[in-house]
Specification:
6-stranded mixed beta sheet; Immunoglobulin-like
Length: 131
């Protein structure tokens, strides 16, 4: 015995199928909307530091995306001079920063990541390959 689907049930199935296809499309696009590197402002043994970094392959890319989080109780600067990045991250804020390829100094392989508001803070680095 077969049952006919109600219009409401049919609509729900249609929405589910559409969402599944959209998610599959995002997965196919190689993690669209995800970060290439993460940085977190923390305090370690009395020093404020940007933890994170890594290596990003720039080959075939128009931009890179950095996920920046400030876990500290005050504003924290986030700068990468060789990528033309200079931001102020509020306490508790998480921000995605997209850097266009044209802003990345390709003569530099290791980019210094530091807090421009407080020069004594410990810097991190980000490596970029495939330039």
């Amino acid at each position: 015995m077969t049952k006919k689907l109600s219009l409401a049930h049919s609509a729900k199935l249609s929405v589910i199928a559409t969402l599944a296809l959209a998610l599959a499309g995002c997965a196919y696009m190689g993690g669209y909307g995800q970060e290439d590197a993460k940085f977190t402002a923390v305090e370690v043994e009395g020093s404020k530091v940007w933890q994170g970094g890594g290596t990003i392959d720039l080959k075939g890319r128009d931009s890179i995306t950095l996920k920046v989080t400030n876990t500290l109780g005050a504003d924290h600067g986030f700068s990468i001079d060789t990528m033309k990045v200079q931001e102020v991250i509020k306490p508790g804020e998480e921000r995605m920063i997209t850097v266009p390829r044209g802003n990345i100094d390709t003569s530099v392989a290791e980019h210094r990541v530091y807090g421009q508001l407080h020069p004594k803070h410990v810097a991190a680095s980000l490596k970029v390959t495939g330039q």
